[in-house]
Design brief:
Elements lengths: L1 H36 L8 H17 L2 H20 L3 H8 L2 H19 L8
Helix pairs in contact: 1-2, 2-3, 3-4, 3-5
């Protein structure tokens, strides 16, 4: 009985470890795809965030805890930029709020390099 319990516990722990690894790997693969698309995104231009909104939402959903909140900041900003549309006044107001987004993006970039070996486009 003890052997069966120990074996079952070992299998469960092993499966949990594999699942966590697989989720992180999936995030890293998606992050690599995002990095290839985001090359022309200017973090100082709110309108550019609309182009990455769908990818950012996907990455926010799959992101590890270390950067989940940072992706939330990027997604929230991109949604504001999308809502602003071509309203120049609103876009100008948003461009003054890029500080927190750039900080979040820097955290994402550092994590991407360290955990996924992915270089996301640099902030200008």
């Amino acid at each position: 009985m003890k052997r069966t319990l120990a074996l079952a516990l070992t299998v469960i722990v092993g499966a949990a470890s594999l699942t966590a690894c697989t989720e992180e790997q999936a995030y890293c693969v998606d992050l690599g795809k995002y990095a290839a698309k985001a090359v022309d995104v200017d973090p100082q231009q709110p309108v550019d965030y609309v182009r990455i909104l769908d990818d950012a939402k996907k990455l926010q959903d799959s992101a590890p805890a270390d950067v989940k909140d940072d992706w939330g900041v990027v997604v929230a900003f991109a949604e504001k930029a999308k809502k602003a549309g071509s309203d120049r006044v609103e876009l100008a107001r948003l461009s003054k709020q890029t500080g927190s987004v750039m900080t979040a993006y820097k955290n994402i970039s550092t994590h991407a390099k360290d955990a996924c070996k992915v270089d996301v486009p640099a902030l200008n």
